Amino acid sequence: xxxxxxxxxxxxxxxxxxxxxxxxxxxxxxxxxxxxxxxxxxxxxxxxxxxxxxxxxxxxxxxxxxxxxxxxxxxxxxxxxxxxxxxxxxxxxxxxxxxxxxxxxxxxxxxxxxxxxxxxxxxxxxxxxxxxxxxxxxxxxxxxxxxxxxxxxxxxxxxxxxxxxxxxxxxxxxxxxxxxxxxxxxxxxxxxxxxxxxxxxxxxxxxxxxxxxxxxxxxxxxxxxxxxxxxxxxxxxxxxxxxxxxxxxxxxxxxxxxxxxxxxxxxxxxxxxxxxxxxxxxxxxxxxxxxxxxxxxxxxxxxxxxxxxxxxxxxxxxxxxxxxxxxxxxxxxxxxxxxxxxxxxxxxxxxxxxxxxxxxxxxxxxxxxxxxxxxxxxxxxxxxxxxxxxxxxxxxxxxxxxxxxxxxxxxxxxxxxxxxxxxxxxxxxxxxxxxxxxxxxxxxxxxxxxxxxxxxxxxxxxxxxxxxxxxxxxxxxxxxxxxxxxxxxxxxxxxxxxxxxxxxxxxxxxxxxxxxxxxxxxxxxxxxxxxxxxxxxxxxxxxxxxxxxxxxxxxxxxxxxxxxxxxxxxxxxxxxxxxxxxxxxxxxxxxxxxxxxxxxxxxxxxxxxxxxxxxxxxxxxxxxxxxxxxxxxxxxxxxxxx
Length: 642
What we know:
Layout: H1 7-104, H2 112-124, E1 127-128, E2 132-138, E3 143-146, H3 168-178, E4 181-188, E5 198-207, E6 212-219, H4 220-236, E7 247-250, E8 255-257, H5 279-290, E9 292-298, E10 311-319, E11 324-331, H6 332-443, H7 450-477, E12 485-488, H8 489-506, E13 509-515, E14 519-522, H9 524-542, E15 551-560, E16 563-570, H10 600-611, E17 615-625, E18 628-640
Helix pairs in contact: 1-2, 1-4, 1-6, 6-7, 6-8, 8-9, 9-10
């Protein structure tokens, strides 16, 4: 299909097409740039939001983890202080007992029992940490001093078990048999309580002179209580840079640490938000279930009166040893303000960029239109000049094509004249003989019978008919009819062989035909010319073979899908590989100049591919016929039947 209906529309396109294209292209580019700018704003805002949330999440998580580690460190420091204090008390008690022993042993009235009694009396007076006391046991389990539980003095506790089933005195005996001093933990009861389930941590030191050990300890609950008080006091005194803050609740909802000091000590487990949610309960449940993580919620505490929204994201972490929920968070309204400010800034910047893009785009468009208009005029002028040259060259090409076809026809005509002469020999010979017979009968009456004379006359008439038919066949071949007509494949092959059969027979070339009758619409004479060219070329190659060898041409005609296929092959050993790709070129020939023009196959290709919209190709094939292998060229013609 031709895009341009006529030359005028083509010239109009050349003149105005680039200008319209530039305007459309510039408009599209401007729209794309504007759209891209808007997308950039969306991406920047989205990135700002993501960065803000991500940054603040990292910040509050780090703060919570820092507080968590601080509590751990403070616990360790407190524990170390408690342990050192207990150890120091036991060492002082041991030093006091050693001093009494060394002093008494030198006396004349020294006795072991009297010395032990003095030691017990002196150590009973020692008190520390409000409820701390010294105890003394014999290595075999008898209690000599326990000012916390005096009712146990004098009793043997060798078989006493704590709430975990540990035989404390027996266990201590084993340990102090190997070393002089040890830290130890066990379960004991408190004053005014019979429950032996309070964990104590203490120091036991062996007093070798009397096979005793002196000890002291503290209740872990007391240590925990004291430590928590000190840590909470420290945490509540922290001054963090706003908006950083921390909050700590126990699992009962009691507020332990909060930036709003008035909330410390309040139980907020049952405090509701405006929409009826128990936020502290939800946070505690989340901490118990997940141990740590981020939570989105509406806070019941507002740290900044300027905020209109309490929407918040907090990082929560459970301090399992003490059942504390540690948290820190940030308010989303601050993010919204930042986004709004950024959005306004980006929109202003974007509007300026869009204006600049439009101005630059319009300027470039005007400049390009001016340049394009000038170039279009130049192209129009060049095209007009070129058009004249093309018309001139086209006329020359048409004339050359006509000349080529005529040359091909004339070349074929020369050979056809030989065929006519060959085909006329027999009819002329028959006419001559019949004429001689009639001449004799005129001179010599009754020389031939009436039947012989009648047969001679019939022979003359038949020979004249054959001569006339031969002339008609060759005249039809040279008929310059270019009108498409409907014809059958069998007819065109029969006409082809009529015209060239005499040449084939005279050169002992056998034609093996396998022709299927297929009807097609096209230029019969041009197809006829192509087939004659192919058969003639095959004949010229076959005559080069020794006369003793068989010479074959195979012609196959059949329908395949929607095409007519014509295959012509010989056994003349094929076309040399170095020239097979050039055989359809104009004026290309392997024959001597006086024997060929090199346009036969070129014209054949033009006829098949241009006039009949088909295809023609050549290749060398190897095949078997009558149990003998042959090699030759094969030409394949494919003509569409639609």
